[in-house]
Amino acid sequence: MSAEVDLWQAIAAAASDGDVAAVMRNRQRDVDDHAWAALSGVARATTPIPFVAVAYFLDSAIRQGGLDSKERRAHVIGACRAFFQNTSSAPFDEAPERICSITKALLALTSDLRELILPLRRCLHQVYVPRNLQTPLHTLFLLVCLRNGVYEPALPIISAPVYGFQPKNLPTPQEHLQYHYYAGMVFAALKRFPAALAEFDIVLSAVSTKLSAIQIEAYKKRALINLIVHGTDPVRLPRYCSTTVLKTIDGASLPYGTFLGAAQAGLPAFEAALIDHQATLADDKNLGLAKQAMKSLRKRQVRKLADSYLTLSLVDVAEAAGVASQDAAQALVFEMIDEGSLFASIDQQTAMLTFGEPRDDFDDEDATTALLDQLRRVNEYHDRVLEANLELATYTPYLKRVVDVPQATAAQSSCQDSQYQFA
Question: What is the CA angle 374-378-379, rounded to 5?
Fold first, then answer.
């Protein structure tokens, strides 16, 4: 009997996905020898193979190389598409590290992985979102979306709450920071700036003894998005950020730390600062965010006018908003009306702007649905906090430490407990 036939018989005889994984691990040499033939059958949908086995064949084929061949690359992409469309959680429970290595290898091979975005999203949504878990595959999925400029498919994944990690596939600290950094970039690309700000705050508030490159890049984007969301009265970094971050991040992120002061000095000063540092912004790929921050500050100036005047000429609006002409002011006002941030009308004959009262849209069905959804999430968070508190209160190692520590040294012990890991 040939080794190939023997391998297939062993796979077919496996009683469970765990047994399939054991067969593949124990017969790695045979897996390497027959990986390409197996993937050819998977890609053409001619060979029914347990998807746990597909993960091992994919990992083996990619490690062997030879993907310069157009035919072999097509086999890998086709097999990956079939693999990620599989709704079973078995491969992700039995061979999670191989799945991540497959995706990393594909990213190293090519950045054009658009055809894998939806299968990847479906896989994450079916397997991990219901369990509220985060894995390294989440980080890789967001990287695929960002590299290909496709952001909407990532929204259901990054909007889902995360309460834990897959024990067999824990993300490294770097992968965890990258996930939230990429999530912030996706939210920013979709103009969901408050959510982006929250993601960057998670990156910056991570426990650290020295700044990481990810934190510096997150702060640069946060500085601009902060101006978009909060204007010249921005939210400071969370107080629970490490002392290292609070003391050194401004100096490590120049000139971004100076933009707030320029904005507070007025629109001309902020615009001049952006022009002076245009090359740096372009190199950091933050020039688009800087322009949006400029436009957001101009819109805030227009809204301030609405708080003080009933009617105003477009010439005065242009002067207050720092735009070059009456036509530019009119275009800005129309944009604000379209997005619902300003209620006004323009008399074209007199070039006068009349401000109106905002409509009450809080009694419609969409607003009610959104409110109920938020209440549901708050109740869910409340229940999980109570559950975690109860679990901690009955955790024997924790109780022993609390009971054994003298009252006089309780404060010192609480600091040391920050490094204690609870299962």
Answer: 120
CA distance 280 to 287: 8
* Eight-class DSSP state of 151: -
Residue-by-residue pLDDT tens, the chain, 423 positions = 477 778 878 888 887 878 888 888 888 888 888 887 777 766 565 556 777 787 788 888 877 776 667 777 777 777 777 777 765 666 666 666 677 777 777 777 666 677 778 878 887 877 776 778 888 888 989 998 998 899 999 999 999 888 888 777 788 889 999 999 999 999 999 999 999 999 999 999 998 888 999 999 999 999 999 999 999 888 889 888 999 899 999 889 889 988 988 999 989 999 999 999 999 999 999 999 999 999 999 999 998 988 888 898 999 999 988 888 888 999 999 999 888 888 888 888 888 989 887 666 666 777 788 888 889 888 888 888 888 888 888 888 888 877 765 544 444 444 444 333 333
* 3-state DSSP helix/strand/coil % of the chain, to nearest 5: 70, 5, 25
255-260 contacts at long range (C-beta below 8 A, 24 or more positions apart): 255/280, 256/219, 256/220, 256/223, 256/224, 257/223, 259/223, 259/224, 259/227, 259/293, 260/223, 260/226, 260/227, 260/232, 260/234
Rounded-to-integer distance, Cα 410 and Cα 97, Å: 41
Question: CB atoms < 10 A from the CB of 159, how many?
Answer: 12
What are the strands of the beta sheet with 352-355, ordered from one edge?
Answer: 311-313, 352-355, 344-347
CA–CA dist 183, 178 (Å, integer): 8
- Residue 202 backbone dihedrals phi, psi, to 5 degrees: -65, -40
DSSP string, 27-83: THHHHHHHHHHHHHHHHTT-S---HHHHHHHHHHHHHH--TTSHHHHHHHHHHHHHH
Task: Classify domain 309-355 by CATH number.
Answer: 1.10.10.10
Asked if 345 and 312 touch (Cβ cutoff 8 Å), the reply is: no
Angle CA 21–22–27, to nearest 5: 100
- Residue among 316, 292, 295 nearest 306 (CA): 316
Tell me the residue type at 106: L
Cα 256 to Cα 274: distance, rounded to the nearest angstrom? 10
Q: How far apart are CA 153 and CA 122, in angstroms?
A: 9
Distance, in Å, from the CA atom of 304 to the CA atom of 165, rounded to the nearest integer, reads 46
* 50 in Cβ contact with 11 (< 8 Å): yes
